[in-house]
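A further point concerns the way the authors explain their paired sequence and structure data. Each protein is reduced to its one-letter sequence and a matching series of backbone shape codes. An entry of this sort, consisting of the sequence and the corresponding backbone structure tokens, reads as follows:
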Amino acid sequence: MAEVRKYKTYRRMRWRNGRGFTLEIAREPATGGDFAWRLSLADIDRDGDFSAYPGYRRAIVLVGGERLLLRFRGHGHRVLDAAKRGARFEGDWETHCAIPAGRCTDLSLIVRRGSGARADSVVRAPRMMRVDPIGQVLPTTNLHGALFVIAGSVAVTESIRARSRIMRARDTLLLSPGLQRTLRLRSLGPSAAQLVLLSWRPGRPKIAVPGR
């Protein structure tokens, strides 16, 4: 099943550390304190620390601005720019961000890692796409997915008989695990559309043992 989420419908909420705001695109479950995964969009207007998410894995994509520098204490650093927009890291890493070229916007995916010695979660590397004038996506059947429009606008068609759905900049197409399908994309503007595909599977939650 695929569902389009429009940018104007995203829910504004404060960061966990209280130092900024994010626009929540989607999460599972939809309400409650804990979640299996969450997808959100945030503007970064100053240097600062990311919120800590122990027990989770993260992927982040630069979707607005020129340069985002991520420093992970004890784990090196990553520079996100037009040449390399995405990075993955653990939610419990101490992460500091800097915006040397000014304000940035990031797309953030947070996925439950799972319990036990072997985490069963999956967070694929972000896949950048350029549609000019047509393209296609073959989502992985056993993973959740999100197709986010960075720039431009596209018509998305799931099958020959299905009606096309229009997506504009900062809209998201959510993909649930299920049957194999091919998404056909067509750019609607005078220039190429830019998109990113995220794919993931949350780990199993920790099962509480009675009496402990």
